[in-house]
Amino acid sequence: MAQLLEPLRPRYDYILIDCGLKHELLTINALVAADRCIIPVQAHFLASEGIPDVLELVRNVQGRFNPELEVAGILLTMYQSRPQLCQSVRASVGEIYGGSIHVFERPIEQTIKVAECPAAGVSILDYAPKNPAAESYSPGRCCGLAKGGMNDLLKKRMSAAQQAAEIAVGDEAYEALFKGAPAPENSSFCELPITRLRPFFTADIGFHPYPPEKLKAFSQQLAEQGIYERIIVRAISGSGDYEILAGHNRTKAWQMAGHEKIPAEVVTADDARAVSIAVATNLLRRQDLTIIERGKAYKAVLDAEKRQGARTDIGTSGDSRQKFLTREIVADFFGVTEYEIRKAIKLAGLIPPLAEILENEPRRLPISCAEGIADYDAASQQAFVEMCSIEGYRLNKATVQKISRACPPPAADRQDIYAAWRQARADEAQRLAAPPRKISFDRKRFAPYLERLGSEAALEEQFLLFLRERLG
Predict the structure, then answer these.
(1) What is the pLDDT of residues 20-73, one digit of tens each?
(2) How far apart are CA 440 and CA 461, in angstroms?
(3) What DSSP line would sit under 26-85, residue for residue?
(4) pLDDT in tens, 420-452
(5) Which residue of 79, 201, 203, 363 pairs with 300 in a disulfide if CB–CB is 3.0 to 4.6 A?
(6) How far apart are CA 388 and CA 340, in angstroms?
(7) Using an 8 Å Cβ cutoff, are 13 and 145 in contact?
(8) Rounded Cα distance, 452 and 69, in Å
(9) Distance between CA atoms of 26 and 16, rounded to whole angstroms?
């Protein structure tokens, strides 16, 4: 939500977010993105009884996501000056909360004009500007909010929202994939020496670090603007070090900017939750991930699920069924198909030289070829590195299929693979060198058209035109 509000921020002095009655995700998102919140309370006894629940929600958001969130005040609404009940509620709210929270002096009046103005399609300020309700909404009634410094505050709110999302999405993945809620959150905020931080090592999640140019630009940005978003870490048992769950590039860029310590959020997490936090947000939101990065991330999640809750009392067929169900759950959570997951995980099995070619120079190694090569073990795949390194040569699917038939995977001698490849290339060269075959037609069946067109060449042109229109 904070990201959506960013382009609107320079256009307005205030942005009001109207929240629902329930303490749902949208309300929490609004509180994470906000600088201040106003608690509207209907001037009825039961409505005023809900104030402690709202304040508890605000405190939870302040403690976990947005420590700078402030309560601007309690605003009584639908107020009528004559009924004794409204006056009693107003007095009680001021007496109970007025010492610690600002209670707006003048409530929002309830009049029939407020109900009529929506039908007229205008606000109460235009519909009945002198009505008591309109005066209640007049400028200067709400808390003052200085514009100076608000850009920095908004950046902090956006960063807090992003950080909260990383943990929240990770925990949603943990609950969906591992069938269990995470332990009660007792995270702490501190600054940690960068020398005590270790890259994520619980699993190979596959995400590449920023290239040097991008990392340098990121470092310059942090040097100018400061760091608003904490990294997320967990303590490494038996040492004073920490494993980074989120924020590897942030840490490197911050260190390049000359800092020795970095703001961090330390969470308690088992391996499954750690993997969930490390991969879930990236898989859901990053569109620049390569298929191999995604494959390694999917595999890390599936492997963690297997370690976390694999059954040892099921046979082979049951085990296959369990794997199928797990892939189905993972596919549903990340919004992809099971085929996409299987394909990505398969390609993640390519050895590093082939993976680098596929990611950086896909024209030299099409995905259709890479899928066939991935069926081989690491030693056998080495043979294909040379094929993909020949200048001007492009491996094709037909060649890989011929090699697979001659040297069935998963293991094959490299010299046998080379021999099959040379034979496939020779067959391809022979096919290309052979004279084109002539296409013949039954002259009797085409006789009526020949009479109308006048020649076989004209008939050939019409036939080619038909094929272009139908087949492209």
Answers:
(1) 766 677 888 888 888 899 999 888 777 777 788 888 888 878 877 777 788 888
(2) 15
(3) HHHHHHHH-SEEEEEEESSHHHHTTHHHHHHHHHHHHHHT-TT-EEEEEEEESB-SSSHH
(4) 999 988 888 887 777 766 777 777 787 887 778
(5) 203
(6) 24
(7) yes
(8) 84
(9) 14
